[in-house]
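Lecture notes, continued. The same structure-token format from the folding unit now serves as the input rather than the output. Read the line below as a description of shape only.
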């Protein structure tokens, strides 16, 4: 009969399967947050500098948002490893950032085309306009802030 086995020494709970031959460990250290605690954490995150709140209206928007969130985290790690021994070289970093710039411009152009097709006014972000102007004059230069 399936049941729970408790290891008091390691504070772990083991759950036996119906077959009795598989035992899976469930950690007691993982605390499940209540809905109220989750809501409080979200509200406090909104108050942080640099945070954004966005209502997502489409499944594709949700996917893009998840990719963006992970990109932002990877970029933070990238900045920390740029030029460090065992990290990312400046040349490789510049090539990666050029790819990021190109992909961002391509995504902006795709959004503009989609918006035009459905008669929605798309406003290109000012930072992209500046990058577009800077790269149209100088092919390899990125704008300096």
């Amino acid at each position: 009969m399936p049941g729970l086995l408790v290891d008091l020494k390691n504070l772990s709970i083991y759950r036996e399967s119906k077959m009795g031959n598989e035992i899976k460990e469930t950690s007691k250290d993982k605390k499940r947050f209540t809905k109220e605690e989750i809501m409080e954490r979200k509200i406090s995150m909104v108050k942080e500098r640099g945070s954004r709140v966005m209502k997502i209206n489409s499944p594709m928007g949700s996917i893009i948002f998840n990719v963006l969130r992970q990109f932002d985290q990877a970029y933070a790690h990238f900045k920390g490893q740029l030029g460090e021994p065992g990290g990312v070289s400046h040349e490789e970093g510049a090539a990666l950032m050029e790819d990021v710039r190109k992909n961002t411009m391509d995504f902006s152009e795709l959004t503009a085309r989609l918006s035009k097709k459905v008669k929605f006014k798309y406003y290109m972000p000012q930072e992209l306009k500046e990058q577009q102007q800077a790269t149209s004059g100088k092919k390899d230069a990125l704008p300096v802030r």
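Point for the exam: The radius of gyration is 24 Å.
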